[in-house]
Amino acid sequence: MDAKGKVVVGVDGSQASVDALRWALEEARRRDAEVHVVTAWHTDPPPVEGPPPVVGMPYHAAEEALTAQQAQQDQAMACVAGEAQGMTVYRHMVSQWPPRALVHLSTGADLLVLGRQGHSWVAEKLLGSVSAYCLRHARCPVVVVPARKPVQQERPNPVVVQAAPEPLY
């Protein structure tokens, strides 16, 4: 019996991670691979290089964090329920700094899929970037699904006004 491939996808409850999950499911279907949906969180501040961050790091009790993250993963899975139909999907809840958890689970995977959040430069420097860390340390190819462009609302038709025949002053 042939071993199935393995696609790992990080899900944090954001729209970007739902888009990454959707992309991972499509790719896993093409590859006849199983999908490992990973939600990782930490209750302690992440490791920081350099001076301590200026912003406060929120603290959550472990049980509270697990409940919140499980709800986010459940919501993401509900968004793609139709696309996951008939596929082998494993769900993982990991209490660890997310980039390290994803890198660890990328061992033996064919692909690691992440959503692009689009944090500002300051947030990325202070908090780190999951995708940047995974790109440097993952043990398999990494796909970063770009953020969707926001849907622009239709603008009303411009009103055309005829120029005044005389000077305005």
Automatic annotation (TrEMBL):
InterPro entries with a match to the protein in the record: Rossmann-like_a/b/a_fold, Universal_stress_UspA, UspA
Database matches in Gene3D superfamilies: HUPs
Domain UspA per the UniProt entry, residue ranges: 6-146
Family recorded in the similarity comment: Belongs to the universal stress protein A family.
Name of this protein: UspA domain-containing protein
